[in-house]
Amino acid sequence: MIFKNLEIKNFRNFENIEVPLDNKNVIFGMNDIGKTNFLYAMRFLLDRDIRKNGFVKTDYHKNNTDNDISILLELDISDFDESEDTKSLVSEAAGVRSSRNAEKFYIKIVGEYNKKELIGEPILLWGDDKENLYQMDSRGYAFSIDNIFKVIYINPLVDLEKLFLKNKRLLMDESSSSDDDKKIIEEINELTDNVNKKIGEMKIIDNLQTEITTEYNDLRNENIEIQMKSEMAIKGFFSDIVPYIKKKDDENYYPTSGDGRRKILSYSILNLLVKKLYEDKIVVYLIEEPENSLHRSMQLALSHQIFSNKAYEYCFISTHSSDILYELDNAMLLRIYSTDKVECSTHLYKINESFTKDKKKLNREFCNALFSERVLLIEGPSEKVLFEKVMNEINKEYELDGGYILQVNGTYFKTYFEAFKGLNIDIIVKTDNDLKIKKGSTDEYELLGINRCLKLIGDKQQPNIKMNFTSNVKKTKLRELKVKRKALYTEKKSLVDKFEQNKIFLSELDLENDLFNVIGDRLSEILVIDRKKVVEKLQSSKLYMMVDVVEDLDNGDCKKIYNSKYFKCLKRLNDE
């Protein structure tokens, strides 16, 4: 079973949206944009505990109760032969399916506002024909769908004590006690009786009982007496059981203090409850901002659980943290944005198998940039060092203003570009006009830089070129390749212009030559070398040399770079 699509109409801040889903969904965006409301749409649909309260006026978009609330979930059930969850759903919904559409199934909730009762009564429908759904059977607030789905909602401030207290008896089911356990329980009860007898023999307790009894009978003479007893004796010894931390090779017990540890323990208890109580149901986790109160190491550990653990097979998670997404793979990213008209964009993020070994690196860079409005994709560390210096001189708050510089290598350009584009994040690209020799050849070259840009905009690749070198001497060949690259940049001017229209900026040659064209004399002064040797020096040890150069660049140098035609990408990053 696959969560395929969700339509929300007239619900809270969602006027009318439709978004693709998957079984793992990550919801992100600015504060107060609608992430919690999105989770509540799922809760109204699948969670009886929320649904039973009905829809109130403020649940309707802009309080418009003339239009119904409508939340429609589309499921892909084409995996009937392999999925037990799909079989459970199909079995429960046997009477509302036809043979015409065996691969899709819909669940819908409608809230028609009753102005006399001041409430929107939830009506649930389902079936495989989107336009002709059947009204679902119900008993009070329980609908047929509640026999199949169980929602586990975890809020950012999950309370360990309340969670454990509420579910203590479920976690420790006395009815399943073994014979040995029953004998131990009898022994504990005897010990408890003895404890209470000893407590009653204490003079301080006896005096207190007498004094309280006297005061009570003075107020109301009922011929009774007050006795002090251990709670263990009255409520049972399970009532006093609470979780403690015990470290290995340490005989001491430590209270579960610390918000991070308490939160992880809460997740553990919830997972255990699911295993004990809901094995026969399709469990859907709705997790809101789990990073709250968690140290980075705990966020990484939780990320591994969410994206690797079978228990979280169906999961919706809202977050502001890139660390929660550290293990991200095979998940639908759902970005909610725009304060005046709420919109959503989605992208199914799945790492190509050939990149598996670089998964963490890909995720770390990608997830840090996810929470930005504009992302500048660059090739390597030299660009990053230079561009960060320039941007900090021009606008120190460029990241606060929504900008982000993301270093990739040529292999990952397409991966990042498609992801950000799918999420409607503004993408800017700066890349070199590289040529790459064809494997096994000595004179045939691929237009690597130009074709990289063409691939990003979905255009046809340019054919390889042949080089007629005048000499086999390496320096001569490099010089002639440089001339050819410049010539290609001029020849392909229409393509270069098209790239720039798509915010993709191709260097005439490369970063070092671009920089030289803008501040060549200044570079010669900083490096203390002849002007003719500047580019060669910069390229001899790229990152090391760039770090040295950047240290000596002043505000005037940075302004020249920023305002140059060679670095238009920086103005785009600054939203100019």
From TrEMBL:
Extent of the signal sequence: none
Protein name, as recorded: DUF2813 domain-containing protein
CDD domains: TOPRIM_OLD
Gene3D superfamilies noted in UniProt: P-loop containing nucleotide triphosphate hydrolases
Sequence ranges assigned to domain Endonuclease GajA/Old nuclease/RecF-like AAA in this UniProt record: 1-112, 174-324
Domain of life: Bacteria
InterPro entries: AAA_GajA/Old/RecF-like (IPR041685), Bact_Antivir_Def_Nuclease (IPR051396), P-loop_NTPase (IPR027417), TOPRIM_OLD (IPR034139)
Domain OLD protein-like TOPRIM: 370-434
